[in-house]
Structures are given as C-alpha cells and as structure tokens.
Amino acid sequence: LKCNKLVPLFYKTCPAGKNLCYKMFMVSNK
User: Fold this and answer.
1) Confidence of residue 11 (pLDDT cuts 50, 70, 90)
2) Do 2 and 8 contact (CB within 8 A), yes or no?
3) What is the pTM of this model?
4) What Gene3D superfamilies does the entry give?
5) Whole-number pLDDT of residue 18
6) How many other CB atoms are there within 10 angstroms of residue 20's CB atom?
7) Residue 18 CA from chain centroid, whole number
8) In whole angstroms, what is the distance from residue 10 CA to residue 16 CA?
9) Distance CA 22, CA 19 (A)
C-alpha cells in the first residue's frame, strides 16, 4: 500500500514506512 499523505489516519496503517509516511504528511501540511 502506498501511503496517502492527504489522509492522516492512513499513514498509521503503513507498517514499513510509518516514519516516512508521517514525515510526508507533515511536509504536505506545512
């Protein structure tokens, strides 16, 4: 599954790239 940086709940479901998904989410939220 690809992490959707537009959905804050979705990055939590990313098992391998949790930190990466979180960073992408934060960057898109800047």
Assistant:
1) low
2) no
3) 0.28
4) CD59 (2.10.60.10)
5) 61
6) 13
7) 7
8) 13
9) 5
Burial of 24 (0-12, 13-18, 19+ CB in 10 A): middle
Comparing 20 with 14, which gets the higher pLDDT?
20
Give CB contacts under 8 A, 24+ apart, made by 4-10.
none
Burial 2-19 (b: 16+ CB within 10 A, else e): ebbbeeeeebeebeeeee
Q: What is the mean pLDDT of residues 6-15?
A: 58
pLDDT confidence band for 1 (50 / 70 / 90): very low
